[in-house]
Amino acid sequence: MNLPRFVRVEQTFPDRSIKDIRGHIRRELNKSDMATRVPKGARIAIGVGSRGIANLATIVKSVVDFWKEAGAHPFLIPAMGSHGAATPEGQADVLAHYGIHEATMGAPVVSALEVVPLGATPEGIDVFIDKAAHESDGIFLVPRIKWHTDFDASIESGLFKMMAIGLGKFAGAQRYHTVAYRIGLEKMVRSVGSKVFGSGRVLGGLAIQEGAHHETAGLTAVSSSGGLDQMIAHEERLLAEVKSWMPRLPADEIDILIVDEIGKDISGAGMDTKVINRNVYGQSNPWPQLPFVHRVYARALSEHTYHSGVGVGMADVVHDHLVNNIDWNPTYINSLTASTPAAIKTPIHFPSDRKALEAIAPTVGKLDLSTVTYCRIRNTLELVHVEVSENLIDKLATNAKVVSEPYEVEFDSAGDLMQSDRHELAGYEGDEEPALKRF
Fold first, then answer.
1. pTM value?
2. Is residue 152 domain-shared with residue 253, that is, in the same domain?
3. Residue-wise pLDDT tens digits, 137-147
């Protein structure tokens, strides 16, 4: 194995973090009209999704407290489509892993799959809504506004997607994704979300935005009282803003991208497609404005992905222990519901990092394997501290700086990579080497 030496690199992105999350939410919600539109004692359904959103428990607890102080009786519903293996227990467990359950939130979690039909959209899409939410006095959503992994549009992941797929539960998610395969996800989300909006149940929500550090960068109250068009326009503005904050890999072309972990808690697609420049339908480098990545090597599943292997099919090669850790039941359910079977195809896999890298390095078109370039990231959410091969230094982006001396890549006795803790890299001056450990 003729690996070049590596260096640690720190990318500089603006820190947009909100310092006082609770106070910010209180001010946002107090200046909105949502609490004045329901009577005292109203039952408010708070929809919460399944992503690994920064500070999610703090955000949700602040929303619960706001509604309690307004004299309402809030309860939480998992707004997740087919996640959590499409079971009530699984979806409640997803929230519990984020610290969201009755004991911490002070509000019950009502997790069920029963839905109520709302009729059809002009395109003929039958629309459903969570029964408990429909029977409440008002629905309040807590989504993250973010680019979607499957398509580019002015509305992607956010309020309207949660109104559609999240509130539609498993029954709705199956139907909507089937239709979206033909008409496109954006048109489906707009159409179904608008139908749910028309039910009159949705009060609005708290739109979460995250910056390049995976920090809470925006918390905006969005009310439905201004009408459908105004709510759509508000979400479009928030998405355009957060897209301008999108982090990138540190070079415009990378031969081999090593991804330490993938998972549903990291991205709906396991890996953020707009970081690795892959899509869930099997295409490599579909977005010309993004860095060109020749090969993706995925090493493991994240701790909080419930053994879901969604996204494994976007890698070119994976570690055996990643494949062996997959629970194919939730993986099949989520991928087939989303009509993305290519995203769970099993790539070639090897029993060690060394064997995987030895196998994939000759496939990038370079006879001299010492010139193959590498970038290693923990996951597609964490792009501030990364590792790159020494031969990539002169191609780094202007916002990336080297923060260590070059070092030899080390493998343990099993042939797996050793690494230093990237969270300790900030301020590293090169005069001492952080302790190595197995990932």
1. 0.81
2. no
3. 999 999 999 98
